[in-house]
Specification:
mainly beta; UDP N-Acetylglucosamine Acyltransferase, domain 1; 4-stranded parallel beta sheet; elongated
Length: about 140
């Protein structure tokens, strides 16, 4: 387990061996991480630990569960009660069981709703501009 600077962990959070929380990650109450993909009580699988990575600035809502092996992208947002089975792209908003992407989140913590030219998106709350990169978004300098 590794905890970065400024990590905030609320009540009743289970952070087990193999979990890395980068700087400024938020874990809401009751978040649970797993570290073995197929546990059995009678079979020792300590040599089969599977790492989970939560990148800088990500937020995990109350009672979210993260299956080992998943990476939560930078500033990703996992909704309360979501069950994450797969990687979450940078700035993605995921909810449900299993977790599905329903939108995008800004570094400031507000949903990015405004779409501009060339797939770029702008946060209405703070004005930050984002462009698609890979499966996620990346903040870019405003050219206007």
């Amino acid at each position: 387990m590794h905890l970065g600077d400024g990590v905030k962990i609320q009540n009743n959070v289970l952070v087990c061996e193999g979990v890395t929380l980068e700087d400024h990650v938020f874990c809401g109450s009751g978040v649970a991480f797993t570290n073995v993909p197929n546990p059995r009580s009678e079979i020792v699988r300590k040599d089969e630990l599977c790492a989970t990575l939560v990148r800088r600035g990500a937020s995990l809502g109350a009672n979210a569960t993260l299956r080992c092996g998943a990476t939560i992208g930078a500033y990703g947002f996992v909704g309360a009660g979501a069950v994450v089975l797969e990687d979450v792209p940078d700035h993605a908003l995921v909810v449900g069981n299993p977790a599905r992407q329903i939108g995008w989140m800004c570094r400031c913590g507000h949903r990015i709703e405004r779409v501009e030219a060339e797939g770029r998106r702008r946060c209405v709350a703070c004005g930050e501009l984002y462009a698609p990169e890979g499966a996620g978004l990346v903040a870019i300098a405003d050219e206007t």
